[in-house]
Amino acid sequence: MSQPNVLFLNVQLADAFGIRDAQTVNALRIREGKIAETGLNLTPEADELVVDGKGAFLSPGWMDMHVHLREPGLEHKETIKTGCTAAAAGGFTAVACMPNTLPPIHSRDVVEYIVNKSAALPVEVYPIGCVSKDRAGKHLAEMGDMKAGGAVAFSDDGDPVYNAKLMRTALDYATMLDMPVINHEEDLDLSRPGHMHEGRVSTRLGLAGTPSIAEEVMIARDILLAELTGGHVHVAHISTRRGVEMVREAKAKGIKVTTEVCPHHFDLTDEEIERSAFDTNYKMHPPLRTADDVEAMIEGLADGTIDAICTDHAPHSVEEKEVEFIYAPNGILGLQTAWSVVVKQLLDTGRMKLPQVLRCLIDAPRTILRLPVPTLEAGQPANLTLFDTTSSWTYSVASNKSKSRNSPYLDQTLKGKAHGIYNRAQWVPNDI
Predict the structure, then answer these.
(1) In the chain, is it the N or the C terminus that has fewer CB atoms within a 10 Å radius of its CB?
(2) Where is the binding site, in residues?
(3) Which residue ranges make up each domain of the chain?
(4) Could you tell me which residues are annotated as the binding site for substrate?
(5) pLDDT above 90: residue 2
(6) Residue 13: beta bridge partners?
(7) Catalytic positions, please?
(8) What is the pTM of this model?
(9) CATH number of 61-368
C-alpha cells in the first residue's frame, strides 16, 4: 500500500558510519517518498502515518545480493512476489536474483520480464544474467544486451563456470561493461557425488563428501584470471578457511576480488547433519563445514576480507526435501532468519559492531553491483529498514512468508527482528 508520508518516531538512526546520538536525533520524516528531515521529537502532521519505533534502529535498506526467486519456470517453489514478501519480512529492501530459472536468465527478454514483474513491489529485484547460454558452460551469453535490459552481474550460479577459457573471456567482456562475474566456486571432478562436507562426520555417517579443496581450487583459478584480465571476480557463498585466506591475499595484492558469506556458514557445522539424523534442511552447497571454517568466516567478516552477507535463499518444495538425504536437492531458505543469525553470531558475541554489520548488508552488496547506496540524508529517496537486536520471535510455518519451508531454523525461537521496511513509497510492517 502506498504511504508517501510517514513519520518515524523514537528510532535510533544507524548506518555503516555509526549510530546517531538519540539525544540529538530520534525521528525521520518522509514526504512524497523522500526523506524530508531528521530531528528530535518531530511533531506529526495531519496527513502522516506515524510509526513508533519504540527505540528500534532505523537504517538505510538492506540488500541481499544472492537469492533464488525461482520465477520464471519453477513457481511451485517460489515466485518473485512470495520471495520479495519473505525479503521484506527479513528486512531487505532489495535482492539480486540468480539465473538458474526455466528458462535461465540468459537473454534480455528474461531480464526484462523479471524487472517488469517486480517494478511495483516494495522490494527491488535486480536480475543476474547468465555467463553462458542455457548455463551450459559452452558459449558466452548476450552480456551487453542483458546489461541494457537491467542485469547487474553475470553468473551461472548453481553450477560453476567450469571452462577456464570461457571464464577468461567472460571477465574480458564484463570488464568492458564494468560488471562483476559471480562464480559458484566448485571443481566438479573433486566434489561429486558429495552430499556434505568431506571429513570425520561424513566418514562416520558413510556419506560421500565434498572436500574443501574443491572450492579452493576454483577460487585460486578465478583469482589468477582476475589478475590476468583486470576483471572483477566475486566469489559466491565462500565457506572454507583457505578460501578466505586466498581472498585476503589477493586483496592485499590489489586484485579485483570480492566475496560474500551466508549466515548458515558462520553459524552451523557439518555436525548438525549427524545430530539431526540426516535432516535434509541441513543439506546445501557449499555444504556446512567445520567449526574452524565457521570461525574463519567470522574472522573474515570482522577484518573486512568478506565484503557482504547474503542468504543464498534457495526454496525447494516439501516433496523435494522429504526424501533420503542423498536424493534431496541442495539449498535452504534464508531471507527471514538472516538477521537473527547475525545478531547471535556477530553482535551478541562482540565480534562485530553494528555499523560494521550494516556495511555488509547495505553498502557492500550495492557497491559490488555498481548500484546507488541509500542514505539517511534529506532529499534522498526513502529506502529504510526498521529493526532491533533484542526482540524474540518464533520462525514457524505460520510466520514463514516463503512459498517453501526448507529451513533448519524452523520452529526455533530467534532473537533480533526486522520490524518493517519502507521503499518505493510503501511502508511494509512485519506482522510476525
Answers:
(1) N
(2) 66, 68-70, 100, 157, 184, 237, 312, 316
(3) 6-58+380-390+411-429, 61-368
(4) 68-70, 100, 316
(5) no
(6) 58
(7) 312
(8) 0.98
(9) 3.20.20.140
